[in-house]
Write a structure and sequence with these properties.
The structure is a single chain. This protein is α/β, with parallel strands linked by helices. The protein contains 14 helices and 15 strands. The protein has helices at about 5-10, 45, 55-65, 80-90, 105-120, 145, 150-155, 175-180, 205-215, 270, 285-300, 305-320, 350-360, 380-404, and strands spanning about 25, 30-35, 40, 95-100, 130-135, 165-170, 185-190, 220-225, 245-250, 260-265, 330-335, 335-340, 360, 365, 370-375. The strands form three sheets. Strands 4-10-9-8-7-5-6 form a seven-stranded mixed sheet, with helices on both faces. It has a four-stranded mixed sheet with strand order 1-2-3-13. The chain has a four-stranded antiparallel sheet with strand order 11-12-15-14, covered by helices on one side. A hairpin with a 2-residue loop joins strand 11 (about 330-335) and strand 12 (about 335-340). The longest helix is centred in the last third of the chain and has 23 residues, at about 380-404. The mean pLDDT is about 95. Bound molecules: 3-[O-phosphonopyridoxyl]--amino-benzoic acid. The site of 3-[O-phosphonopyridoxyl]--amino-benzoic acid has 15 residues, from helix 5. 3-[O-phosphonopyridoxyl]--amino-benzoic acid binds next to helix 5.
Length: about 400
């Protein structure tokens, strides 16, 4: 075993099963391993690297701010936090934002906001508030969040769980309406389920869901940690259906591929439930995060990353449809957020990823059957074509093996 991997294997908890490659450098859409091999990154750290690795403008914003003031905590004001959140609110059509670091923290923030809004504004009786989430959801890994999971492994050994969570089948608006009671605070939903395997709900689902939520005075909170900031071909995936959520959760790409930066955004009447001391985080909204986040939004607009994702995602999908491999059971996604569902009778998605790695493409399977393709949004058409040729060769080889 490679010495670096051996060390990690010995001292790092085994809560992941990485592909056997040690990455040492990244630039744009490429990463390099410790032996100097170059790979096309078709995963972008689960969409955290939408801007590409080491984007020069983002690295400059980071280093300039790091040399000036990196961390000061929210006990004090800092120069760029207001400007960053103003820009974020203006771009997403929200009134206010609460900055955090990781996705799970921002989801936790959303849950707390929804509950407090239910008690203080909607008038739900103490401790009766309910949150409705969807089967197949992935919102992170805290205890409150895995309490909402329909995946047995995410919960196994971590109980007891907080109550007040309900699940409805993803994509089923009627089930949502049936599940709502006078105690329902919020409906939490991913516009496209990433971890579930790039699952796109039936057309019109989000639009119906937002109408139902409005009718019952329930907050629709969109978890766009993975789908947001251009990944699916619009700034927000909700915009494919013209939906403006009451609450919005962003993370991953908000940190420009350099830092963990997340935020919960909402209408003013929701955000106003928070008073000093109710909620927070030492690092949330730190000067470094604000400087990088602000520049990440600027680059997103300047380089038209959402538009690129729409155009190049359509091209990638068209090319993949052209492969006609027996291994491909279905192709799903929007923009540069694509899942290739592999027929489990013929091959394992993990093996596809391992073989792609040998061809210079990094990706990661999800749920044993789906190969995820979500490259940095700065990828070019030529680079996509290069990747599709290799994907075609790998699938062809594996189809021959499966047939023999
Ligand atoms: N919501 C969604 C939709 C996500 O995809 C989270 C919340 C949680 O974000 P944080 O920053 O707390 O991981 C995610 C995360 C992993 C992993 O390595 C995480 C995600 C996707 C795939 C793997 O645990 N998404």
């Amino acid at each position: 075993m490679n010495k670096t991997i051996e060390l990690e294997d010995k001292y790092c908890a085994h809560n992941y099963h990485p592909l056997p490659v040690v990455l040492v450098r990244g630039e744009g859409v490429h990463v390099w391993d410790d032996a100097g091999n170059k790979y096309l990154d078709m995963m972008s750290a689960y969409s955290a690297v939408s801007h590409g690795h080491a984007h020069p403008k983002l690295v400059q914003a980071l280093t300039e701010q790091a040399g000036k003031l990196a961390i000061c905590s929210r006990a004090f004001h800092s120069e760029k936090l207001g400007a960053f959140l103003k820009r974020l609110c203006a771009m997403t059509g929200m009134d206010m934002a609460l900055p955090m670091n990781t996705g799970a923290e921002a989801v936790e923030t959303a849950l707390k906001a929804a509950r407090k809004w239910a008690y203080k504004v909607k008038g739900v009786a103490t401790d009766k508030a309910e949150i409705i989430a969807c089967t197949g959801n992935f919102h992170g890994r805290t205890i409150a969040i895995v309490a909402m999971s329909s995946e047995a492994q995410y919960k196994d050994g971590f109980g007891p769980f907080p109550g007040g969570m309900k699940l409805v089948p993803y994509g089923d608006a009627d089930a949502l309406e049936k599940a709502i009671t006078p105690n329902t605070a919020a409906f939490l939903v991913e516009p496209i389920q990433g971890e579930a395997g790039i699952v796109v709900p039936p057309a019109g689902f989000l639009k119906k869901a937002v109408e139902i939520c409005k009718r019952h005075n329930v907050l629709l909170i969109a978890d766009e940690i993975q789908t947001g900031l251009g990944r699916t071909g619009k700034l927000l995936a909700c915009q494919h259906e013209g939906v403006q959520p009451d609450g919005l959760i962003l993370g991953k790409a908000l940190g420009g591929g350099l830092l963990p930066v997340s935020a919960f955004l909402a209408r003013k009447d929701v955000m106003d439930v928070f008073h000093p001391g109710d909620h927070g985080s030492t690092f949330g909204g730190n000067p470094l995060a604000a400087a990088v986040g602000l520049e990440a939004l600027q680059v997103l607009e300047d380089e038209k990353l959402a538009e690129r994702s729409a155009e190049l995602g359509a091209h990638l999908m068209e090319r993949l449809h052209g492969l006609k491999s027996p291994l491909i059971k279905s192709l799903r996604g929007k923009g540069l957020f694509v899942g290739i569902e592999i027929d489990p009778k013929l091959a394992r998605a993990r093996e596809v990823c391992e073989r792609l790695m040998a061809q210079g493409i990094l990706s990661k399977e999800t749920h044993e059957t789906v190969v995820r393709l979500a490259p940095p949004l700065v990828i070019t058409r030529e680079q996509i074509d290069w990747a599709v040729e290799r994907i075609a060769a790998v699938l062809k080889d594996m189809a021959l093996k499966a047939a023999s």
